[in-house]
Every structure is written in structure tokens, then in C-alpha cells.
Design a protein that fits this description.
With about 800 residues, this protein is mainly β. It has 4 helices and 47 strands. The strands form 7 sheets. The chain has a 22-stranded antiparallel beta barrel.
């Protein structure tokens, strides 16, 4: 009877135990000195719980269900520590971190990345997440599921020329750095991922700051900043072999290796890659080669690291797109037919990093860098006027010949070099950084005639135009994060940027485009971060950014018009909530532009958009992101962006062709618009992912992306738009160990599993042809159902 009573009593309290919630609290201190550690990351493994220790070194988690958990604490400069704790009551769990015998790579980019408690809208992707989908596609394709992000591929399959937009802004308005060193091309502001094939295999982590973000080096951030950190120090020796193959004869092979930490101080890491693909679009082939080598010295207070990496690309041009009327009949159409219509370019990067811990509170970083790029794109041209190439007409007897077919190459040969630096001070309440950079770009632009139909009197590789571009870019910034109380910290950031840009010489149409432009910008930023409780936090920030026009903005502008600087104020307000199985983020933004450069509908002679300043435009929206762990088997991740992206007033100039046969131009047709959608800025973007893990080391993921209608120009015409699309990809990954090979991995990626016919980008040229409103439209179709299968061997 007594046993029965006890059993019934136990059964009656089991529900209370099952639904009980407890806390884990503690302090993170330095071993030996017992000093509290500010900013340590405290993570409960297998959950969404993550905390950052405050200036007293304290952290706390509440509403933890009963069970056994692993709690890991990490901080730059200290060895990570993991403890297993059984939670059946409120628990106190303290950590004493031991200082590392060497400094960690994270200190090298501390000036350009933000911590967890920053009042900034950001997302960090680690090496493990990158590896899951890295089968040789360009980096933008691996970031496709990030909030507010749209990707595109000229060849239609993610290899070759690819691009991305964040919050509707293209990559010329996204600041990209590699280890804190600018990667945007100085003149065009562009980022050509094809020049760094397979760079994802040498990346340790990527941080994307949406909006203006914090001060950094290089191009202005008008939509986002992307910080790439390459391979970090690995203490153990390793060797990896990765091979993948798939649709359109796509192959990727690479070898990765590292010595580990030799004599407790030295490391060497390397990678050698080759990627080839025929592309989805006809003849849109890619032949890509790259390597990455890094050598480092790691002392207790010093790091010296040399990175050398290079990419060589040869791609058949697919820039022309598919005419709208052919999308139903020939989605792989390529207008180029000349067998050597290729882009051929090589880019070599050299980075030397130095970091010195001067005292416990003060650290100094500096880097020297040099990038050498050279290459051309080749074209076959029919019926070209001799005069357009400064060639005298050919006279044969009484006949004068002034047109001919020819083959031309347009070259870019450039050098980019400079230095970056930062000085960091940190104590229990204050973290301050003084940083900046000085960079110089020297670029030669020239065109050569390498073959002509007639034996005209010109020298071999005749050069018909030549101009130079020189750009000096200096910036200095000061950042401050002050912890007012355990729950509240404030952020301040002030940047001064000075630019001098000079163009000297003639362009391919023989116009003298010589000019000098100078800009001085002051960019202040401020924010506040408040921890509501252990699970919830909120932040608000305001940031200013200025952007100078690009080379093409100056080069292609009408003679009577000079593009001028752009101005942006970015307001952000965010909320974050995390518990054991749920993580939610919500962010509202308002980006207020003054004199934003936008599309006019005109194209230059190689199909690039001509842009003009508009007085007022804005982007306003809400970004939502969440993850829910149903159990150990199933995880659901979702992000959504709902926005309005408008030009308040806009004057559009449309070419007026009064004689189509001779293409004689009249005065342009002038149109006035109000409150029209900005081009390539959909009102809705949704990303969704289900991940199923039925057993250890095996994951199946279904990833879906919805992108709303995008307008190709700023007139908000449905005729000149890209239809909304919904695309789903499927990924299977499995890893296992053997006695012979420590780890074998298989990865299958099936893209567009429902064979959706969609286009991700386009261009438009509108004109009135003898009074008729006409549009020439080129679309970039993406491949139907296609696959990549990869095998990795890790030793």
C-alpha cells in the first residue's frame, strides 16, 4: 500500500517536473587574475540559446527545460571551454577561461565586423553552413537564402558571371571586403565574383550587415556590407579532396591542405581549384582556375599572416540575354555567335597582415595589400566605319571602302594597392576602435584591333583608344561601444572619407573623357542596444552614407550633365528573441535617399545602363527571420521582407528615333512620373527552409525562394518587368568515418526541383520609333531542374 501511494505521488508530480523551467546563470572570468570577461559568447549547444557576458562577466538563461545540456563559452584570445550540466533546478555555472598561447585570426578584422550586441542588422554565416551547399557555384548562389537577397546568373546555372542584390541594391552599392581589405573594383564599384572562383572553399565566415552598417574600408554601403574572412588557423594538419559534377557538364575539383600549428607558432594553408561548365545558356561556357595560399606566424601577442590568392576566368559571353519574344520558344538562346566571344581575365591578390597586442587593453592591426588585374573581352564586329577607329578609308582604284568587319579586344590592366589599419582599446565598459585605410587604383583602359577584313595600313594589334583612371581613397573612422549598464549599451561611429578620381584620355567612341573629381564625405552613425531580459533584446540605429558616382556614370553621361554624389540616411529598429527551440528577429528600416542614381532606360554601346540622379527616393520595409527546432529531427527556418521602394518624382527621357532606317535621332520624349517603384526592388521576398535530420550526420533540406515582381526600369510598366517566381531546391548531405579515411562526405543538390521557368534579371531599352513606343528587352532565364553531386574526402 505504501509503495502504491508513493508511485501515485510520483506520477502526480511528473507533469510538474516535465513542464518545469529553470535558469542557468554564472560568471565568466579570466583564469589566474579572476578578472571578469566582457563579450564572451555563451551558447547552449543544440538550442537557440546564446548570451554575451556583460561588463561584470555575468550571463544568464531563464526558462530552461529540465535535461542535460552542454554549455560552451568562447572569446577571442581565450581557449573555448565546454561544460556538461544537468538541469533539474536553478543552476549556477561559472567559467574560468585560460588565455591562449597565441592570438586568434578574428583580431585581424575586428575593425570591420560587429559583435552580437551591436545595434546593427546583420547575419553571420560560418564555415559549416558554407560547406553544406558549396559544390562549385559562385559565392552569391551560396547566399541565396539570406534575408532580402536575390541572386542571378548570366549563364543560368550559377557558374560564371553571377550577381546579387540586397534590399534591391546591386553589388555596386554593396561594400565587400576580404579580411578587411576592399574588394569592390575602385572605378566601377562592381564585384566580379567570377574573378575569384571557388573562393567559398577558402572562407571561414561571412558577415552580412544590411543597410549602411558600420564604418568600413572601400566602397560606400548603400544596401549592405559583406565581410569575408578567409581560412583561419587550424591547430591540426589536414588534407581535403573535393570533387563535384552535375548538369551542363559542370565539374569542380579542388585540393585543400594545411600543416596545422607547427612548433606552436607557424601554419601554412593552401587550396588549388578548377571549375568548368557549359552553362544552361547556349555556349555560356566557363573555364575557371584559382589558388589560395596562406602562411602565418602566431605568437602570444603577435600575428603575421601572408595571404596570396588568384583567379583566372575565361567565359563565353552571355551578357546579351534572351529577347522577351523568345522566352517561350528558345530559353537557351545566345545572341553571340563568334567562336571567341569571350571574357578573359586574371586577378592576383597579395595581403600581408600584422596584429600586435600592446597591452591587455590595446591592440594594433595593420595590413598591406596589392591586387593586379589584367584581361580583355573579345568581339567580332560587322560593318564598322573606319572613322570610328581613326583609320583612313581604303582607296582601291576609284573605289573608296570605309566599312569593314573586324575583331576587337577591349582591355583593362590595373593595379590596386594600399594599407588598412586599426587601433583597439577595450576595458570592462568601453570598446573603442580607431581605424581606416589609404588605397590607390591605377587602371589602363584600351582597345585593340587584332584582325580586320581588309589589309588596312595599321600596325599589328592597332590601339584605337586609350585612357587611364587613377583613384585615391582615404578614410579614417572612430567607433565606440559603451556599456552604460548590464542591459544597455550605446554605439557611436564617425567616418571621414576623401576621394580623388582622375580620368585622362579618349574612350572607344573617340570622345575625350578627361576629368578630375574630388569628394570629402563625413559619415556619422549612432545606435543603442537594450537587453530586455535573457531571451529578448532590441536595438535602434541611424547611419549616414555618401557615395561618389562610378566611372560609367561619368563616362556615359550627357555632355550637358554631370552626375553628382548620392546621400543616404538609414534608420533601423530591431527586435530579437531566443529560447531553447525558437529564434525570432524582426527589423524595420527606412532608407531615405537624396540624389540617388537610378536607371534612365538608356544603354551605352556595350549594353550597360546609363543612370541619372533623382531628388528624392526611399526604401521602407520590415524584415522577419525565424527558426524553430521542432525536435532533434526537424528544423524550420523562414525569412521574409515586405517593403516599398519608391522614387517620389522622376523625369524620364526616352530616345526619339525619327527615321528607323538611318536611326536618325530627334529631341527626346520627356515623361514625368510620381511615386514609381525603383527598378529591381520587389515588394516581397520570402525564403523558407526545412531541414530533416533522421540520424547523425545525415541532413535533408528543402529550400524555397519567392521573389515578387521586379520592374526593369523606373516607369513601373508591367510590360518591362520580371514576373514573380517561386523556386525550390533540395539538398542531401551525409558524412561518415572509416579507419582509412577519417571523414567521407556526400552532397547532392537538386536545383529548381519543380522545373519552374523563371528569369532573375533583365535589361530594357525603350525608344519611340517613328512615333511608336517600342521596347527592346533582354531576359536572363535560369536553368530548369538541374543537379550537382559532390564527394569530399577529409584526412
Amino acid at each position: 500500500m505504501k509503495k502504491l501511494f508513493l508511485s501515485l505521488a510520483l506520477l502526480s508530480i511528473l507533469p510538474l517536473i516535465a513542464f518545469s523551467q529553470f535558469s542557468i546563470k554564472g560568471k565568466v572570468i579570466e583564469k589566474g587574475s579572476k578578472k571578469s570577461i566582457l563579450g564572451a559568447h555563451v551558447i547552449i549547444e543544440g538550442t537557440s540559446f546564446m548570451q554575451v557576458s556583460n561588463f561584470a562577466g555575468e550571463y544568464s538563461f531563464i526558462k530552461i527545460g529540465p535535461g542535460t545540456y552542454k554549455v560552451t563559452v568562447s572569446h577571442i584570445g581565450f581557449k573555448s571551454q565546454t561544460k556538461t550540466v544537468k538541469v533539474d533546478k536553478n543552476t549556477m555555472l561559472n567559467f574560468e577561461l585560460e588565455e591562449k598561447a597565441y592570438m586568434a585570426d578574428e583580431v585581424l578584422i575586428v575593425a570591420t565586423k560587429v559583435p552580437e550586441n551591436s545595434p546593427t542588422t546583420f547575419k553571420t554565416i560560418d564555415e559549416e553552413d558554407i560547406e553544406k551547399s558549396n559544390l562549385g557555384q559562385d559565392l552569391p548562389m551560396l547566399l541565396e537564402m539570406m534575408p532580402s537577397t536575390i541572386t542571378t546568373s548570366d549563364a543560368g546555372a550559377g557558374v560564371g558571371y553571377t550577381g546579387m542584390r540586397i534590399r534591391g541594391t546591386d553589388v555596386t552599392r554593396i561594400n565587400v571586403t576580404i579580411n578587411g581589405i576592399p574588394y569592390n573594383e575602385a572605378e566601377s564599384h562592381g564585384v566580379y565574383w567570377v574573378n575569384l572562383p571557388d573562393i567559398a572553399s577558402s572562407v571561414d565566415n561571412i558577415q552580412i550587415q544590411r543597410g549602411v552598417g558600420t564604418s568600413t574600408n572601400g566602397a560606400a554601403a548603400f544596401g549592405a556590407t559583406i565581410n569575408l574572412q578567409t581560412t583561419t588557423m587550424k591547430s591540426e594538419a589536414y588534407a581535403n579532396v573535393n570533387s563535384s559534377a552535375g548538369s551542363f557538364n559542370t565539374f569542380r575539383n579542388n585540393i585543400e591542405f594545411g600543416t596545422g600549428l607547427v612548433n606552436g607558432k607557424f601554419t601554412i594553408d593552401g587550396r588549388l581549384s578548377k571549375i568548368t561548365s557549359d552553362g544552361f545558356i547556349d555556349r555560356a561556357t566557363s573555364d575557371l582556375k584559382s589558388f589560395f595560399v596562406s602562411a602565418g606566424f602566431y605568437g602570444k601577442n603577435t600575428i603575421v599572416k601572408l595571404n596570396i590568392f588568384s583567379g583566372k576566368e575565361r567565359t563565353y559571353q552571355a551578357w546579351g540575354g534572351v529577347p522577351k519574344e523568345m522566352l517561350k520558344t528558345n530559353r537557351t538562346y545566345n545572341p553571340y555567335t563568334y567562336e571567341n566571344e569571350v571574357d578573359d581575365y586574371q586577378q592576383d591578390h597579395y595581403q600581408l597582415h600584422f596584429s600586435q597586442k600592446i597591452t591587455r587593453q590595446i591592440q594594433f592591426n595593420a595590413a598591406l595589400h596589392y591586387t593586379y588585374g589584367r584581361g580583355y573581352f573579345e568581339q567580332y564586329k560587322e560593318d564598322r566605319d573606319f572613322a570610328d577607329y581613326s583609320i583612313a578609308p581604303l582607296v582601291i582604284g576609284e573605289e573608296t571602302i570605309d566599312e569593314m568587319d573586324l575583331i576587337q579586344q577591349k582591355w583593362l590592366d590595373n593595379d590596386f594597392y594600399g594599407t588598412t589599419y586599426s587601433l583597439k582599446y577595450e576595458n570592462n565598459k568601453l570598446k573603442a576602435i580607431l581605424g581606416g585605410a589609404w588605397n590607390k587604383y591605377d587602371g589602363d583602359h584600351f582597345g585593340e584591333v587584332i584582325w580586320s577584313e581588309y589589309a588596312v595600313n595599321i600596325e599589328k594589334n592597332y590601339r584605337w583608344y586609350f585612357n587611364t583612371g587613377t583613384k585615391r581613397d582615404f578614410n579614417i573612422f572612430a567607433k565606440m561601444n559603451y556599456q552604460i549598464s548590464p542591459k544597455l549599451n550605446i554605439y557611436g561611429d564617425l567616418q571621414f572619407r576623401s576621394i580623388k578620381y582622375e580620368i585622362d584620355g579618349i574612350h572607344d567612341d573617340l570622345r575625350d573623357i578627361s576629368q578630375t573629381r574630388k569628394f570629402d564625405f563625413i559619415n556619422p552613425k549612432a545606435g543603442v542596444f537594450y537587453e530586455i531580459n535573457e531571451k529578448q533584446s532590441t536595438y535602434a540605429s541611424v547611419a549616414v552614407s555618401h557615395r561618389e558616382p562610378s566611372r560609367s556614370n561619368y563616362r556615359d553621361a550627357d555632355e550637358s550633365y554631370t552626375p553628382h554624389k548620392e546621400f543616404l540616411i538609414d534608420y533601423e529598429f530591431g527586435y530579437r528573441c531566443k529560447n531553447s527551440n525558437l529564434a525570432v528577429e524582426a527589423n524595420a528600416f527606412y532608407m531615405d535617399y537624396k540624389d540617388q542614381l537610378v536607371l534612365t532606360g538608356k544603354l551605352n554601346n556595350v549594353g550597360e545602363a546609363v543612370m541619372t540622379n533623382v531628388d528624392k527616393s526611399y526604401r521602407v520595409g520590415v524584415e522577419l527571420a525565424g527558426a524553430y527546432q521542432f525536435d532533434k529531427l526537424l528544423k524550420w527556418e523562414l525569412n521574409a521582407t515586405i517593403s516599398q521602394n519608391k522614387i517620389k518624382k522622376f523625369t524620364n527621357y526616352v530616345d526619339n528615333v525619327i527615321d528607323l532606317e538611318s536611326w536618325e535621332m530627334g529631341e527626346p520624349v520627356i515623361e514625368q512620373y510620381k511615386n514609381k517603384d525603383l527598378s529591381f526592388s520587389p515588394n516581397v521576398i520570402i525564403g523558407n527552409q526545412f531541414s530533416f535530420t533522421p540520424f547523425k550526420n545525415f541532413t535533408a533540406s528543402l529550400m524555397s525562394k519567392y521573389v515578387g515582381r521586379q520592374y526593369i526600369d523606373n516607369t513601373q510598366s508591367k510590360e518591362r518587368s520580371i514576373d514573380a517566381y517561386f523556386v525550390s531546391n533540395f539538398n542531401l548531405s551525409y558524412k561518415f568515418k572509416t579507419k582509412l579515411i577519417p571523414e567521407i562526405g556526400f552532397n547532392l543538390l537538386i536545383n529548381n526541383i519543380f522545373d519552374e521557368e523563371y528569369e532573375s534579371s533583365a535589361w530594357a531599352y525603350r525608344y519611340f520609333g517613328e512615333g511608336t513606343d517600342t521596347s527592346s528587352l533582354g531576359y536572363f532565364p535560369q536553368a530548369g531542374t538541374n543537379f550537382l553531386f559532390g564527394v569530399s574526402l577529409k584526412f
